[in-house]
Prior knowledge:
homodimer; alpha/beta; Aldehyde Dehydrogenase, Chain A, domain 2; 2 domains; 4-stranded parallel beta sheet; 14 helices; about 45% helix
Amino acid sequence: MTELEKQGLLAKEAARALSIATTDVKNRALLSIADALEENMGEWLKANQQDIEEAKRAGMKESLLDRLALTPGRVKGVADGVRQAAALPDPVGETISENVRPNGLVIRKKRVPLGVIGIIYEARPNVTVDAAALCLKSGNACILRGGKEAIRSNLAAEKIMRGALQKAGLPADCIQLVKDTSRESAQELMRLNAYVDVLIPRGGAGLIRAVTSQSSVPVIRTGEGVCHVYVDENADLDMAASILFNAKCSRPSVCNAAECVLVHENIAPEFWKKALPLLDQKNVVLRADEKAKALLGSRAESACEEDWDTEFGDYTLAVKTVKGLDEALDFIARHGTQHSECIVTKDAARAERFLNEVDAAAVYWNASTRFTDGGEFGLGAEIGISTQKLHARGPMGLEEMTSWKYVISGTGQVR
Amino acid sequence: MTELEKQGLLAKEAARALSIATTDVKNRALLSIADALEENMGEWLKANQQDIEEAKRAGMKESLLDRLALTPGRVKGVADGVRQAAALPDPVGETISENVRPNGLVIRKKRVPLGVIGIIYEARPNVTVDAAALCLKSGNACILRGGKEAIRSNLAAEKIMRGALQKAGLPADCIQLVKDTSRESAQELMRLNAYVDVLIPRGGAGLIRAVTSQSSVPVIRTGEGVCHVYVDENADLDMAASILFNAKCSRPSVCNAAECVLVHENIAPEFWKKALPLLDQKNVVLRADEKAKALLGSRAESACEEDWDTEFGDYTLAVKTVKGLDEALDFIARHGTQHSECIVTKDAARAERFLNEVDAAAVYWNASTRFTDGGEFGLGAEIGISTQKLHARGPMGLEEMTSWKYVISGTGQVR
């Protein structure tokens, strides 16, 4: 048995105990984890400092160093996140439906944990705790495989959390970190069907594609977002400019940010008069098709085919002029990633068509794509945003981290 | 572009049209398919006859020939199944939840089709129509990849169904058969992420394992069932014998049949007095552990380790003696396939523990495992029985063949 298979077996056994733990016990464990993180903050920060120094030596970029770094304020934030998880309703045990059959069998559909959740992520040590807390609250054991740059931070967090679990009377093996951060360990985790029920990759498009294509464990694909804002002929153009500016510029690195605006040709000159001054505030680079280029002149670069399928992740926006709703719908069907799509219009019938016909996790009428988020949707917290249609779509809250079982009571019925 | 990629693209386009088709249009198409199958029965039977002859030449076993064969009665049954699908409620369009956020955004969670469903199955021509009908009713386009032994039957069924679709005003490409029945075509379908949203393998354990391990398209794992009946110390032994006999013998080839009985050591002699006469009616082969062998003598063979993990699929039953509930729970955790598990007992507290702690799609108290079935559960119809925890667990009805989208209406909200 390999090291990881041993971890899998222990996780599966721990999941059995955790699946029947009461809400009280799970909440006590979460509060104990939050307290322990603050009490042992020094230990966690020290380990993180070593990761940071090593990363600097290896020449890590400033923006990545920032994601890797913990501070007392960030640790407090992570601990508070764990307390919030404790305060959320427990999805496990709910009777989803009940049904008495003509033969007298009573069939209840009951919500249960998924079991063992594997999470593969990059160098963000806060994810180690955030993900473990949501798994614990939803009754799932987790196997966490973080990036090698954060290994010391992650080992320290794991130690603190496992100690707190034991204090609360739950098996420490509910939370396990993969110590080997080689590519091989990630690949082995992707084939650990015997012990892992679901794999959730959290990170860039490259990671997510690799996991999707190599995993034999069921995967929830998260994250990739090439999101569009379609400005219709009948849009309130001030609203359209404000929505586009927010969708592109409020946080361009995240998956629900807009990457492309589709502008109805009839109102394009008017629209750009409103939108350009806003986009200029952030020096947004425009990659425009020919028609838009004719309007925007030297303010825009010429778009190439690739731009329509690119998640820029920065202050770059693709610009496409369309003849109307049908062309917009076709364009989104071809280039969207089924994440978040928006129409700005005063025409309810056109909005209705857009909302019905666009195939995406979230479709918006007159609101920014940036709202696709567990907190904004009222789900309390999220483990990621699913862009697949199987199991969960859009923000995955605690309920989406569960499955169900059928519980059938009889009096000797046979078939 | 390969032939299959072309089919994928056409299926994706057809799925867009089908996703917004009304219930009436879909039902009209289903009734038109049912009528066309009966009207063109001669054509379908003739093609099937050619498959049968070819299979006989190739030396196919009698039992497999029977699964491959169509008769006028079977065609009528298939057509009636399609009419039943038309009569079921349409899951698509349902508002699952609605939520007005403090910022005024109205967020509706709406049920939508999955999109394009791929189905890989073996040589049963009725599956071609059954699966296509359920996909159509749930608004999904389908790509069907059946076994090579049934290719002529499947081509004939595809032709009849596509004609009926067009007559009803839906794109023929909602239903497509993969013409190439080589292993390579199945493997290509498993990697067709760009066009296929879900893959459902229907067939033996070998097929299902191959698809699970090779597919990058999300898979619903169906079917494998090593199901147990645990006869507790406090069981009504007549009931236990009757349930075991039914679970093992009413249809041993199916996945919800029992493969192993766990007998509490305190009542084992009494139990076998009741159970043996029933099992003898079908000459059930017993593979027993040492303790049971001591009781059963020459009536039983000695079990080997492999027997505990085998889906016999025939009149063979593994027999294990246990000291009590805990040992039974551990044994099922180790050897079960998370399909259907049963306890027979008069003790409600023990039943409660069993129902809570056993991790399976369906857990039974005093009823046969054979009830795990979409029809028996009141789901109307099923595309398969899922033994995974992601997306769907247990019988998959029309609702389990859908996803959802979030539909958000605003008045210019930005974040």
